[in-house]
């Protein structure tokens, strides 16, 4: 209590039962971790969007594909569209040397790019399952702390002959804090999960469109080479 008789939140936290304190610590830890993942995912997805736009501008600028492949291969790491382009062109060049059947060449090229697409989407979706978990279970963890705290408050009332509101209020207040912390952890996680899931879907859609457009270009090259042979 403060000097004016008001209940101090800090006092309630310090005086809470071990179980309620453990629940609060778990929720605070989940909240801190989820915020770290939110900032990390935001940075990764923004970089993916920017890199995709830059590579598409370069790809559709009319640059020779062999030259572009050499530029991408020279980099230590290729992500996003660069990774899909690299995987597709590499497999196309390898199969085109050993086979003049355009269908077989394009089938292998498509498989290589689909594998690369799956890996890229998996990379973009990293951390999202944790955010979904925090968003779904945090309120229930907080509710458990609330139920436990209220239960202890009523158990304590059984040992007294006359119950007053001032005796019950601190226990109920500390219990409700657990619910508040649970909501504080859950709400940002749910908002971030929905936002990032939508962004991943948009990026994946742009990747799929690029794969199909790139495959069409390679198919025309394979057909023209087969006819020339």
TrEMBL record:
Region forming the signal peptide: none
Coiled coil regions, renumbered to chain: none
One GO cellular component term noted in the UniProt record for this chain: plasma membrane
Membrane topology qualifier: Multi-pass membrane protein
Keyword Cell division carried by entry: yes
UniProt keyword terms in alphabetical order: Cell cycle, Cell division, Cell inner membrane, Cell membrane, Membrane, Transmembrane, Transmembrane helix
Alphabetized PANTHER family for the sequence: PROTEIN TOLQ, TOL-PAL SYSTEM PROTEIN TOLQ
Family, similarity comment: Belongs to the ExbB/TolQ family.
Quaternary organization: The Tol-Pal system is composed of five core proteins: the inner membrane proteins TolA, TolQ and TolR, the periplasmic protein TolB and the outer membrane protein Pal. They form a network linking the inner and outer membranes and the peptidoglycan layer.
Name the UniProt record assigns to this protein: Tol-Pal system protein TolQ
């Amino acid at each position: 209590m403060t000097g004016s008789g008001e209940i101090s939140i800090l006092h309630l936290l310090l005086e809470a039962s071990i179980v309620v304190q453990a629940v609060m610590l778990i929720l605070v830890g989940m909240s801190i971790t989820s915020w770290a993942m939110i900032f990390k995912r935001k940075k990764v997805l923004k970089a993916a969007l920017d890199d995709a736009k830059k590579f598409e501008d370069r790809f559709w600028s009319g640059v020779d594909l062999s030259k572009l492949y050499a530029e991408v291969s020279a980099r230590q790491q290729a992500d996003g569209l660069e990774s899909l382009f690299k995987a597709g062109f590499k497999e196309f060049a390898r199969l085109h040397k050993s086979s003049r059947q355009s269908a077989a060449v394009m089938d292998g090229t498509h498989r290589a790019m689909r594998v690369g697409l799956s890996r890229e989407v998996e990379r973009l979706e990293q951390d999202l399952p944790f955010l979904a978990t925090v968003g779904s279970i945090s309120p229930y963890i907080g509710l458990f702390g609330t139920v436990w705290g209220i239960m202890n408050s009523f158990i304590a009332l059984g040992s007294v002959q006359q119950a007053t509101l001032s005796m019950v209020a601190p226990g109920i207040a500390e219990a409700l804090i657990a619910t508040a912390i649970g909501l504080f952890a859950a709400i940002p996680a749910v908002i971030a999960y929905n936002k990032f899931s939508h962004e991943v879907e948009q990026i994946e859609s742009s990747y799929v469109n690029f794969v199909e457009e790139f495959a069409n270009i390679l198919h025309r090259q394979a057909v023209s080479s087969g006819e020339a042979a």
